[in-house]
Specification:
Chain lengths: 464, 251
């Protein structure tokens, strides 16, 4: 007897990215491995895109006028292979759920972003990076194979040795080559769930950069927060935090009984209604930045922090994205290659001169990139800033920065982007045409589409 | 698709020679804008070169606001040729001369047909397209003349009153569809349309209307008064007794 699986019914929804800046209307369809094929067959002319937890800042996981497929978090299918040191899990599984399973077993993910609330599918589609990129590369570097559904509903298994073209077009491909169903990737063994952290307050940008450069080879995790309101000789002052996984012997007696204890929780949430302009303004941010800078010790070594405290501090505050108010915010993240340090400095000078209320800034060194056609990291410096989506002056500032970054051979991170142009992507990603050719091979009809793909001209133009 | 700053990639100006419409376009244009369509009845007067910029394609299309039967097809053709419409500005309209309308009821009906009926069918065609595409914004040029009809231009005023009510209702009907409607209510604007007329108090220019309207559109406001103070002026004027209202020097 054959039974046909009906396509899951979707419902109309207004979807926005984590930055809440601009939403669009879509048919949101919940799918799992069993209903995915029917849902893909059911896609309208404006196509579909997979969505995980919606933590991309901009518009890659929304599809105006089309369908958005939300993958079920199938936690029960997290399978650890202790011999190979790998895990296989559904694409809808979050890092939050994954860490709760693997950390007590003595493993950690090879790459984690600044939040646990991303899915494995999203981690691959954005080829996410973490504070260890200079040492360990990006997430795609650790994936040994993945299963995905193509536009014609065939399911293929790809990996670095198995149709590498499609694999690397999918790593960083923003979901535009197909829907990832599950993936197998390497884990790293850890002795404890604690991080041994070195914190250093540094008074200017040059010192931060030279210290980061010097610690490339001997520090696994490294990242700097920069005070973008500081000027003059304090330009680019900040706090550098380096870390390693703590060994069991480093733990205090109280922690030693359960060295792999993993307890991640949220302590507070931002209410749904925030006063219209938000609570982020020049005054509050100046105060915050001063405090944040002053509270950091000149040097503190060997401090033990939990995984959530070191990697995911913002996860402590639920819906922190609401603090920017109704207009939402955008994150501007770019990378410039080594040798373009003067450009990085020029960018920081321009942002500092504009005196924007920016408190969330991340400066990081990337190691070499991987073969992913649209994978973001290349060897160089990456800076990310969060800024309220208000046009007054911001548009001109960012367009100016775009030019500096692109002229230096840099590029923008598509998982964050909600502002650049098709031309900027073409310049920043010289292998775009190779990627488009692979996409054309697996999706000639242009079934996969998102607001991002339309905005940046990554998918063929189709009318409804 | 618009970006995080609500900067459109595609703008359609219906009433492509409207000075106010063009002033709004001036303010909405950014490096993100790829396509601007000037839709008007006299394409040879559209002067597309005024908007020429790197990376911007300016198209001029023949469009007759009075030919309501063509509107749905026209909008579908626009979308087929230029892709999603991010912002449409419904800016066409005729002021007419009230004293001539008194003797020529047919001319009055034609003016109302363009200002109201034509704008209704155009806006509905655009709204349907934007509903299909799941995003977009419609800016409708209303007028404070519709807030309270005056003896001097009540045919025009009544057509704008109808359009204003229509646009508000349209906006509400589109809640949740990803499409927004912004009603622009200018006061007296010095432009070709009002050349030779006596200026009213708080008169303004197309440029000022353009700036305020564009800022309101970007913020997704329902209503934009230009100048902003008119909102409060009309809060009062609406309640002035008729015998007094009739005698006010409102131009």
């Amino acid at each position: 007897m054959t039974t046909s699986v009906p396509a899951s019914r979707g419902h109309r929804a207004l979807l926005a990215g984590w930055g809440l800046a601009a939403s669009s209307a879509t048919e949101l369809v919940d799918v799992d491995a069993g209903t995915l094929a029917a849902a893909v067959k059911d896609l309208p002319a404006r196509g579909g895109i997979a969505r995980g937890l919606g933590r991309s800042y901009g518009d890659p996981a929304q599809n105006a006028g089309g369908h958005v497929l939300r993958l079920a978090p199938t936690n029960e299918h997290i399978v650890i292979d202790d011999v190979a040191g790998t895990v296989t899990a559904g694409a809808g599984v979050s890092f939050d759920d994954l860490l709760a399973v693997i950390v007590p077993r003595g493993y950690f993910v090879p790459v984690t972003p600044g939040t646990r609330f991303v899915t494995i599918g999203g981690a691959i589609a954005s080829d996410i990076h973490g504070k260890n990129h200079h040492a360990d590369g990006s997430f795609g570097d650790h994936v040994t194979s993945l299963r995905m559904m193509l536009a014609d509903t065939t399911v293929v298994t790809v990996g670095p040795d198995n149709d590498p073209d499609l694999f690397w077009a999918t790593v960083g491909g923003m979901g535009l080559t197909g829907v990832i169903i599950d993936a197998t990737f390497r884990l790293i063994p850890v002795d404890s769930s604690r991080m041994s952290v070195e914190t250093r307050r540094i008074d200017n940008l040059d010192d931060i950069m030279s210290r980061m450069a010097a610690s490339d080879s001997n520090v696994r995790y490294s990242v700097a927060w920069i005070d973008l309101l500081a000027k003059g000789k304090h330009l680019g002052r900040g706090v550098l935090t380096n870390a390693e996984h703590a060994t069991a012997t480093q733990l205090a007696a109280s922690q030693a009984t359960d060295p792999l204890c993993f307890d991640a929780k949220q302590i507070v949430a931002v209410p749904p209604i925030v006063p219209a302009p938000g609570v982020i303004n020049r005054l509050s941010v100046t105060a915050f930045n001063e405090l944040w800078y002053r509270k950091a010790p000149l040097v503190r070594q060997g401090e033990l922090q939990s995984i959530p405290a070191y990697f995911h501090p913002l996860d402590l505050v639920g819906n922190w994205n609401r603090v920017y108010g109704r207009q939402g915010f955008l994150q501007y993240q770019f990378v410039v290659p080594f040798g373009a340090e003067d450009v990085l400095r020029a960018v920081i000078e321009r942002i500092s001169a504009a005196t924007l209320p920016i408190f969330l800034t991340v400066l990081k060194r990337f190691g070499a990139g991987n073969p992913g056609h649209l994978s973001f990291p290349i060897g160089g410096w990456t800076l990310a800033i969060d800024v309220r989506a208000e046009r007054a002056g911001l548009s001109a500032l960012l367009n100016g920065l775009d030019t500096l970054v692109l002229d230096a051979g840099g590029r923008h991170y598509l998982a964050k982007d909600f502002q650049t142009s098709p031309a900027a992507v073409r310049r920043g990603y010289p292998r775009l045409d190779e990627w488009l050719a692979i996409r054309e091979r697996v999706d000639p009809a242009g079934v996969w589409a998102s607001d991002l793909s339309r905005r940046l001209g990554l998918t063929p133009f189709r009318t409804n | 698709m618009q970006n995080a700053l609500n900067e459109p990639q595609t703008i359609v100006l219906l009433g492509g020679t409207s000075e106010i419409g063009r002033a709004i376009v001036d303010e909405l244009l950014s490096v993100s804008t790829q396509t601007l369509v000037l839709a008007c009845r006299r394409p040879d007067e559209a002067q597309p070169e005024r908007f020429a910029a790197d990376g911007l394609h300016v198209a001029v299309e023949y469009f007759d606001a009075a030919a309501t039967e063509t509107h749905d097809g026209f909008v579908r053709k626009l979308a087929a040729e230029h892709g999603d419409i991010d912002i449409a500005i419904v800016a066409f309209g005729v002021l007419g001369v009230q004293s001539q309308f008194d003797d020529d009821p047919h001319a009055a009906a034609q003016a109302v047909h363009v200002n109201y009926t034509g704008a209704v069918s155009t806006s509905l065609a655009i709204a349907a397209q934007m509903r299909r595409q799941g995003h977009g914004q419609i800016a409708v040029l209303s007028s404070v003349a519709g807030e309270r009809a005056r003896a001097g231009n009540f045919v025009y005023g009544s057509s704008k009153a109808g359009l204003d009510a229509f646009a508000q209702g349209l906006g509400d009907s589109l809640a949740g569809s990803g499409v927004k409607v912004t009603v622009i209510r200018p006061g007296f604007v010095h432009s070709r349309m009002t050349r030779g007329l006596k200026s009213a108090p708080l008169a303004t220019t197309p440029r000022v209307v353009g700036e305020l309207a564009a800022a309101g559109i970007r913020k997704g406001k329902h209503t934009v008064w230009t100048p902003g103070v008119l909102r409060y002026v009309f809060m009062v004027l609406r309640h002035v007794p008729r015998p007094i209202f009739r005698r006010l020097p409102l131009g």
